[in-house]
Amino acid sequence: MKLFGTVALGLVLSAGAALAEYPERAINMVIPYGAGGATDISARTIAEPLGEAVGQPLVMANVTGAGGATGSVAVQNARPDGYTMLFARVGSHSVNPAMKATLPYTLDDFRFVTVYEINPFACAVSSNSEIMSMEDLIAQAKGDGVSYSSSGVGSGLHLAGAMILDAFGLEDAANAATHIPQQGGGAAATAVLNGTADFLCTNTSALAGFVSNGQMRPLMVTTAEPVVGFDAPTAASLGHPELEQMVGWTGIAGPAGLPDDVAAKWGEWMAEAAGDEEFVSQMEARGSIIRVMSPEEANAFIQTQYETFRALVDELGMRIEG
C-alpha cells in the first residue's frame, strides 16, 4: 500500500510538472482559409507578437476547403492538449453552422480561448467597373444581372452578398444574383479583379490593400461611421442600419476538452500579443477593431452571431440541407 501511494504521488507530481511546462514544443496553428484572405492576414499579422508571448514557435498552416470546414475539422479531431489550435472566423463558426445542415461539427466541438478582432464588411468592385455606387449595382442586378464572389459556399462572404442585395431591394437575392465561390478570400478578391465576378462583400481588412493601391472601388461599408481609407458611404447613411450586424471576427479555439489551465494561458498570451503597438497599428489601418475577449465573452459573442445569421439564413431561404 505504501509503495502504491508513493507511485501514485509520483505520477501526480509528474503530471503537474508536465502541465506546468506547456508549451514545451512548437504549436500548430491552423488557418482554415487561403492566403490573402481576412483570416490569413489577421493570423500572420499577429503571429510574431503572439509567438513571442507563447515562447515557442507557431507553425502556421493554411488548411483550406469547404468554406473553412476542412481546417476546422482538422482541429476538432486533434488532441485537446493545446498543440493544435485554430484561427476561427465568422464564416467557419457563425455562418457555416447557421447555413449548413450537414456541417461535420458544431460550436460545442470547440473551446474558444478568445476573439480578438472585429471588422466591418465592405462591398467593392474592380476600379475598371462601370458600377460606381450601390444604386448602380442594384440597377444592374435588376437588369442584366450581377455576379459576386465568395470564399466558398456557405461562407460569410456568400451570406453577405445575398443579404446586402436583399436589403437593397433585389427580390429573391439568394437566387437572382450569380454566386461564384472561390477557395478563400484572396481568391474571391482576385475573381473581381480579373472580371470573373462583378463584386464582392468582404471584410475591410481583406480589401484595404486593393483599395489603397487603386485596384478596387468600395461602394459601401457596413458601419454607422466611415472607415478610414474607404471613401464610401456607410450602410446607415444609405438607409440600411440593419446591415451593421454584418461584421467579421477572428478568434482562437482548440478542440472541446481543452484544459482550463491551457485556456487560461492563451488568455494571457493574447492579451499581451494584441497589445503590441505595431500589430494594432497594422490591423487598424485595415479597418479592424482590436478587442480581446475572455473565453466567456467570446463564446457568448459567437453564440449571438450564430443566432443572428441563422435567422437571416432562414429569412433568405439559404439553408443548405445537403
TrEMBL record:
Keyword entries, A-Z: Receptor, Signal
The name this protein goes by in its record: Tripartite-type tricarboxylate transporter receptor subunit TctC
Family: Belongs to the UPF0065 (bug) family.
Species for this entry: Jannaschia seohaensis
Matching InterPro entries: BUG, Bug_dom1
Signal peptide start-end: 1-20
Keyword rRNA processing: no
Pfam families named among the record's database cross-references: TctC
SUPFAM superfamilies associated with the record: Periplasmic binding protein-like II
